[in-house]
Design goal:
Blueprint (H helix, E strand, L loop, with lengths): L2 E7 L3 H12 L7 E7 L6 H8 L4 E4 L6 H9 L6 E5 L9 H11 L3 E4 L15 E2 L4 H8 L2 H4 L24 E2 L3 E5 H7 L11 H11 L3 E2 L1
Parallel strand pairs: 1-2, 1-4, 2-3, 5-9
Antiparallel strand pairs: 4-8, 5-8, 6-7
């Protein structure tokens, strides 16, 4: 198996259905497995998966265990050489996975890679690339200074808005909405930190990747 895709869902059946369709429309649809961990949704997610996508490995929790713990449940079930964590409200292009896999395979010093993420309004999502939340970088973001000076390398360091969204960059952190890494990185980093219930776990995993000597791109 080339790729294992992990999705955590919680009452997002409509989004999830569109996400799954885009996955199975991809150019490596025959070389991937999809594992969905549901945090006790109360919508028709379970029925939708059962009737429309029986080939998906669907895991239903009895309670909302949070994002990191749900991901870890799925990680133990994966068989792919590469692993992609994907949000249920995303749509992937036909060649998204093949491009990311190819980049990782051609750059052995890169531990994690994320794509250019576009919001539904067509605007680039600036959280696609970030610095670690150092005090000054966070302060400039929270006070709005970084928005006033988006091209200043010092004042806009958190979201790195001075870096072109159309070029490849080595950064501190990428978005947990879509992040890919190899099984070898999983073996080195270990599981996600379950002390993060939701939010921050992606930054933590990027931190550990860099601490172990690999680039985040």
């Amino acid at each position: 198996m080339k790729l294992s895709i992990i999705i955590v869902s919680y009452n997002v059946s409509n989004y999830l259905k569109q996400c799954i369709k885009s996955i199975f429309d991809s150019d490596i649809k025959d070389e991937l497995e999809v594992i969905i961990v549901d945090n006790n949704s109360h919508d028709d997610t379970a029925k939708m998966i059962e009737t429309e996508y029986p080939e998906i490995n669907y895991i239903q929790n009895d309670e909302n265990v949070g994002f990191s713990r749900a991901i870890n449940i799925a990680l133990k079930k994966t068989n792919g050489k590469y692993i992609c964590l994907l949000n249920p409200d995303t749509l992937v292009c036909k060649d998204t996975f093949s491009i990311l896999i190819n980049y990782l395979s051609m750059n052995v010093n890169v531990g994690m890679v994320g794509p250019r993420i576009i919001n539904s309004n067509g605007i680039f999502q600036i959280s696609s690339k970030r610095s670690f939340p150092y005090l000054l970088a966070s302060m400039f973001k929270l006070t709005g200074v970084s928005k006033i000076f988006p091209n200043n390398k010092f004042l806009s360091k958190y979201n790195l808005t001075f870096l072109s969204e159309n070029k490849i960059h080595s950064v501190d952190s990428i978005s947990g909405a879509c992040m890919m890494f190899s099984r070898s990185i999983l073996n080195i980093n270990g599981m996600l930190d379950e002390n993060f219930f939701m939010f921050g776990e992606d930054i933590d995993y990027c931190t550990r990747t860099k601490e172990n000597g690999y680039l985040v791109v």
